[in-house]
From TrEMBL:
Chain coiled-coil ranges: none
A Pfam cross-reference name: ABC2_membrane
UniProt-recorded name of the protein: Transport permease protein
Species this protein is from: Streptomyces prasinosporus
Sequence intervals crossing the membrane: 39-59, 74-97, 118-143, 155-179, 191-212, 242-265
Taxonomic lineage from the root: Bacteria, Bacillati, Actinomycetota, Actinomycetes, Kitasatosporales
ABC transmembrane type-2 domain location: 39-273
Membrane-related topology note: Multi-pass membrane protein
Amino acid sequence: MSVAIPDLPRGPFGRLRWALADGWTVTLRGLTHWSREPGTVIGGLLFPVMMVLMFGYFFGGAMEVPGGGNYREFLIPGMFVMTMVFGMGETVTAVSADKNRGVTSRFRSMPMAPSAVLVGRCVTDMLNSVLALAVLFAVGLAVGWEAHGSVADTVFAVGLLLLLRFALTWMGIYFGLLMKGPEGITLVQTLEFPVGFLTSAFVAPSTMPGWLGTIAEWNPLSSTVAASRELFGNPGWGGDSWIAQHATLMAVVWPAVIFAVFFPLSVRRFRTLTG
């Protein structure tokens, strides 16, 4: 029995259409998993909601915002960023599972665009992030948060959040391709917490010991937190350091650097997989 292998497209436009079509096919595969395993998706959406309720109501009464203001309005932009960070663990888990089960190798043996597997994974995770942001926006409004900035500023803030998630997605793809067992995945997911908490998401770095506050200020996540607070018109912690005064700029630069590092690493790792 012989199997007919379709001719590969020729020319840049033909290859682009081929890559987009195959990438969308892989994306649909990921979306199909959502419908078959809704518990995983729902759990991922509920976790940041519980974090908002816990910090906003359990600890919020003891929190003071530098310069005054409502702590929940201070908190919600930080939770938006934390949601983008926690999504990276889902990326690592999904990519590693496909690799270790041989699904990735099967895709690589098929006459499909080489970029489709990685691009499809990225698109699926970005759609998941949009859904997570929508849910958290609704929860934020329910607990008293409000975007006081203009429509343009609000859209720009959402764009910065998704830009961060896009960069972290490629970091997650690389680590997912790198991990060989559940121990590595657990390590990556565990590191999300100290990296995420050592930011300005929950408290102002000025309240930390000097050296720790400096690390928190220069954490790439803090730039997105500060920029989104400013664009949403929510209370911020201020800060007179260079990194604090240029938060919006660095909220673009940091994700660009992360993407520039981990995108080529992901492509290289994917090309050199042996099974």
